[in-house]
Amino acid sequence: MIKTELHPISTRPALYTKHLPLALYQTQQVQDLDRLAIQAQGISGFLLMSKAATATFDVICRKFDGQGSKHLTAFCGVGNNGGDGYVIASLALQAGWSVEVILVGDCDKLTGDALIAYQQAVAAGVPIQYWVAGKCELPLQGVVVDALLGIGLKGNVREDMSEVIGDINQLGLPVCSVDIPSGLCGDTGAVLGSAVKANFTVTYIGVKQGLLTAQGPNMSGELFFAGLDVPDVVYQQIPESTMRIDRCYVDRTLGVRDRSAHKGMFGHVLVVGGDSGMGGAAIMASEAAGYSGAGLVTVLTRGEHVSPLLARYPECMVIDADKHVTAIEEVLGRASVVVIGPGIGKGAWAVGLLQKVFETDLPVVLDADGLNFLASASGKPFRQRGNWILTPHSGEAARLLNISVSEVERDRFASVRMLSQQYSAITVLKGAGTLVASSPIHDRSNVYLANVGNPGMAVGGMGDVLSGVIGGLIAQGYPLRDAASLAVWLHGKAGDCAVKEFGERGLRATDLLTYIRRLANGVQVLCKHR
Hints:
Layout: E1 23-25, H1 27-39, H2 45-64, E2 71-76, H3 80-94, E3 98-103, H4 112-124, E4 128-130, E5 143-147, H5 159-170, E6 175-178, E7 200-204, E8 207-208, H6 216-220, E9 222-226, H7 232-235, E10 242-244, H8 247-254, E11 268-272, H9 279-291, E12 296-301, H10 306-312, E13 317-320, H11 327-332, E14 337-340, H12 348-358, E15 364-366, H13 369-375, E16 388-390, H14 394-401, H15 405-410, H16 412-423, E17 426-429, E18 434-437, E19 447-450, H17 462-475, H18 480-502, H19 513-520
Parallel strand pairs: 1-8, 2-3, 2-5, 3-4, 5-6, 6-7, 7-9, 10-19, 11-12, 11-14, 12-13, 14-15, 15-16, 16-17
Antiparallel strand pairs: 1-10, 17-18, 18-19
Helix pairs in contact: 2-3, 3-4, 8-18, 9-17, 13-14, 17-18, 18-19
């Protein structure tokens, strides 16, 4: 049986971390890392399983120590994920917890390390009952360990396993998933028919990219990482699939301004948009460009929005597009970057402005109805212009790719790569776990992920603010990929900070602006880094 040092929780060093590594992996890559650790480094598979179980039980103890009855029920499958569950149950029993294992599947199918773990649990006296639909005695208290299915799942969950998952989700008890919530695709974050909705998940060796996007954050809950002491030499042999954007990258890339700086050094953002009744979008984009550090901001918009814009943001310059119909050509000659699309609409006014902007060689940030124009037949001639950043949500991405929204969400990584390739663009695919894709020709790890943001940001205007921040950073001279990655993190993190202070309901897009400025200057704010 596995032994662990049972020092008091407060004095024992944690075996896991909430500070995730930057490298994210596909499931096959994690399996390769596991294999290399076992074969090339001589680390036994059962030792890795034991370390994984110990780290997971450590999380459970730290979260629930002193909180009522110490009861643990592990739902275990017959693969290695189940093996982790058997060891966790053994550790809990050794620590004085009331323990039970519910074995789902045929125990005759247990092999290798999972079989050893099962045999040790039986020898230690862990009570084990076998799952029978509708007849199994389910727990009424304590913590549930989900050790049913691991990262090797191919295709949708079987009907019998789906029934078990449904029962777990209806228990109303805190659930800890082992490595990944059962039924969640580690590559895409899609739910494969049904999935366990965990309160927290402890993932091992490499962070699976699907945990951080699509349904991954919703199903995984609070995420912890345990590296299991796999040596660096193993990681050096497997290149990551995706890179996570973090605070260190942002601070390092933004750097510090020269003491001799002047506004001309930080560029000129031109925001084009705000058709009748939609002036707020252009206003928010222009303010965001200023708050992110642009030297100058000009807005070309309908005349009805000029006075409100100047009242809200007197530092910007405004051009009345109704009075000065040819002004776009003159101001394009002075701009460093164009943000076009916020509130621009779908009419002839919008089409004319979009065509003029696309004919230039200026970097462009394209959003909202600008993306819908690009997806239309009228936008087809401009699709390979390059030197631009597209910022679609899943609905806009579906139109650009001529597929359904569900197809986009089924594999957000594939979708964002296709967008970048088909439109010769840096692409920001917004949503839970926003993705940034650059050209694979120039960038080995061509997808970047920002695990920031929250449901409070699901309100109008957030995309306009993001577009403005991207434009403001491009104006300051940052390459398109860096500008997009920086902006996505600043925007999402600002949303987290605002929610930390005020809560999710009622969040406004403009609430983010002062946080964006503080974060861009490296100022510590209310929420912790991640």
